[in-house]
Every structure is written in structure tokens, then in C-alpha cells.
Design brief:
single chain; about 375 residues; mainly alpha; 16 helices; about 0% strand
Length: about 375
């Protein structure tokens, strides 16, 4: 069989769980994204579901009925997609790692590599152009629409790093929330995936479905729910309520990723270990978990990056002293020149890139 035939009949069907999960994730993320529409759309009266929900909640008096109605529309659509995914998974087998000489390898794309180069280059340009614009603005003491050498300054970075208290608090709070929250999210999601796919406990099949329920709820709505539930408790007004909202909001992401990883590891490996005298915990610790380690690292990294830039739930839960980096950026945009906002955005992006490259380097050294 040629490359195209192999890809269509073997590779793509085996990748179906990850592809469908990614499609659902992209759809829900696009429908519920809040920060970009708030900054670019609302000034021009271009609303999305998330900004409409935010507007209804912040009206006086708040219109919770309209906000819930919009959320239900999103729930119906995403629930339909989730049912489609479950149907596909029931009819197919997705095991890719077995005990029969498994070894991952690179795929030669042949003449299709040029199409890959074009697609990846286009994506790279779309990512780099906005960042370059932020970088240019961050070195200007005032932005007039074009770069001016006479306005070059480092004062914006000095303001963000050493003067602006909101920026420093946002940095510290986001690092704590993202590190602790990503770790808890990965551990809980791994437990859900292992119980659902590697045990015979009654009701285990419901775990995956229940854990994906938050996928249909925008972050802004989850923030409102946490606000109403915890506003009279000491838990409200701390960074921990924001962290918990993040974990709940993005639990479907981590569960779907790790569930696909667990399904890819054949149960034959468990059975061979048990036949050789290993307990369930020994087979998990010595066989399954080492095979899942790359997936655990990538899922943790995905949660960390997502948490550190999340804004929707934070908008409803932050108080003075608990600002995250995204909230700090929005507040800086209200009272500081564009150059300060640009400098803070560059530092946030650089921090994320440095962290991503560090984790990738460690994982490549450890798991290759």
C-alpha cells in the first residue's frame, strides 16, 4: 500500500479519538473564548456568545436568564458532538501500543512534504506577526501607528517588572495557580482514565461522560457558578477558587487526552503482567505509567499554558490581590499606554515559550 492508502485506511482511523476530541475542543474553545472578542470585538459592537453572556451578567440588574439560555444552546450542540465521539469509539479499536515489538518511527511524507511546509509556514507567519507587533510597540514610549526610532525606550519593561504592582501580583498568582492546578488536573484525569479503562468497577463507563460535562459550559458561566456558590465562604477572594474553576473548566481537555493515551496501550500488557504475578498497582507503576509518561507531560504542559493565559472565569472570580496575568493585562490596558501593555504581553509570551521549550527538552531527554 502507498502512503495515502495507509494514511486513509490505518493512520486516520487509529487517530480518530484524538481527531474528534480536538475538533470538539476547537469548537467549544472558539465558541466560548472571551479575551480576544472582549478586546477586539466589543468596541466595534461585534459580540460573541461569551461577550453576550458577560454583558447580560454585568447588566444592572443582571440578566441571568438570558445568560443561561445562551449557555444551553452551546450545551446542546457540544453534547451532540460528544455523543458522536462516543459512538465512533464504541465501534472501533484504537490500540496502537502492544507487546509485539512496539517502536515509534518517523513517517516519510514523500512529495506531500511540500504541502506540509506550506501549511506549517502559513501557521508560523500567523503566529509571529501579532507577536512582532507587540514587540515593536513595547519599545515605544507612545504608539502612533508606525515605528519611530526617536520614541525607542526600555521604560515600559521597567514599569512592568519593577513598578507596576498589579503586573507583579498577576505573574506570581498565575505561576502558582498554573503549576498546582495543572498537577492536580493531570493526576485526577489519569485516575479517571485508569478507572474507566483498566478496572471492572460498576459505573466506570459513566466517568468519562461525566468528566466531559464542563466542555459545554463557557468559562465565563463557570466563573458565575463558582461566584454564586462560594461568595459567602472564606474560599472566595483567594487564588484557590480561581484554580478550582480552571481545573473544572478544562477537565474535559485533560481527561480526553489521557483517555486516548490509556486506550492506545493494549490491555494485553496488563494481563501479561498479572499472569506473571504482578499486582494491579505493580503493573500500573512498572508498565503502564512509563508508557503514559510522555502523554502525562504533554497534558500537564497543555494545562499549564492554558491556565496561565485563561481570562474568562477569572473575570468573575478575581478580587484585589488575586489578579492573574490575563486580568493584570486587561487592567493595565485601562490606565497605561499601549507600550506598557505590549511589554507585559511580550514578557507573558516569552515566559510561556521558555517554559514550553524547557519541558520539551526535559521530556525529549527522558522519554526518547
Amino acid at each position: 500500500a502507498g502512503f495515502l492508502t495507509t494514511a486513509l485506511k490505518i493512520t486516520l482511523p487509529l487517530s480518530a479519538p484524538a481527531i474528534i476530541s480536538a475538533a470538539i475542543l476547537i469548537f467549544v474553545t472558539s465558541a466560548g473564548i472571551f479575551g480576544v472578542p472582549l478586546v477586539l470585538g466589543v468596541p466595534g459592537r461585534v459580540n460573541t456568545l461569551s461577550t453576550l453572556i458577560y454583558g447580560y451578567i454585568n447588566d444592572y440588574p443582571a440578566n441571568y436568564t438570558a445568560a443561561v439560555a445562551l449557555s444551553i444552546v452551546l450545551i446542546v450542540v457540544t453534547a451532540t458532538l460528544a455523543l458522536l465521539q462516543a459512538r465512533v469509539q464504541r465501534k472501533s479499536s484504537f490500540t496502537t501500543i502492544t507487546g509485539k515489538g512496539y517502536r515509534p518511527r518517523d513517517i516519510d511524507l514523500g512529495r506531500w512534504r511540500w504541502l506540509g511546509v506550506v501549511v506549517n509556514s502559513t501557521y508560523l507567519v500567523l503566529v509571529l506577526v501579532p507577536f512582532l507587533a507587540l514587540l515593536v510597540v513595547s519599545f515605544q514610549d507612545a504608539w502612533t501607528g508606525s515605528f519611530d526610532w526617536a520614541r525607542v525606550t526600555l521604560e515600559n519593561y521597567h514599569q512592568v517588572l519593577f513598578v507596576d504592582i498589579t503586573a507583579k501580583r498577576g505573574l506570581v498568582n498565575s505561576l502558582v495557580i498554573s503549576t498546582v492546578g495543572a498537577t492536580i488536573g493531570v493526576l485526577f484525569s489519569l485516575l479517571v482514565a485508569l478507572v474507566a479503562r483498566r478496572t471492572t468497577l460498576p459505573g466506570r463507563g459513566l466517568l468519562i461522560g461525566l468528566s466531559t460535562l464542563p466542555v459545554a459550559v463557557p468559562g465565563i458561566v463557570i466563573g458565575v457558578g463558582f461566584l454564586l456558590a462560594w461568595v459567602t465562604t472564606p474560599f472566595y477572594g483567594t487564588i484557590w477558587i480561581i484554580m478550582l474553576a480552571y481545573i473544572v473548566h478544562y477537565l474535559p481537555t485533560s481527561v480526553r487526552n489521557l483517555d486516548a493515551q490509556v486506550q492506545a496501550v493494549s490491555k494485553d500488557l496488563d494481563e501479561c503482567a498479572r499472569t506473571s504475578g504482578a499486582t494491579w498497582f505493580q503493573s500500573m507503576r512498572q508498565i503502564i505509567l512509563p508508557l503514559l509518561a510522555p502523554g502525562l507531560v504533554s497534558t500537564w504542559l497543555l494545562l499549564f499554558v492554558t491556565f496561565i493565559r485563561e481570562v474568562s472565569a477569572s473575570m468573575m472570580l478575581f478580587t484585589y490581590g488575586t489578579e492573574t496575568m490575563s486580568i493584570a493585562l486587561l487592567r493595565i490596558m485601562e490606565y497605561a499606554p499601549y507600550g506598557v501593555s505590549g511589554a507585559f504581553s511580550v514578557l507573558q509570551t516569552a515566559l510561556l515559550l521558555m517554559f514550553v521549550f524547557a519541558i520539551r527538552w526535559v521530556s525529549n531527554k527522558r522519554f526518547r
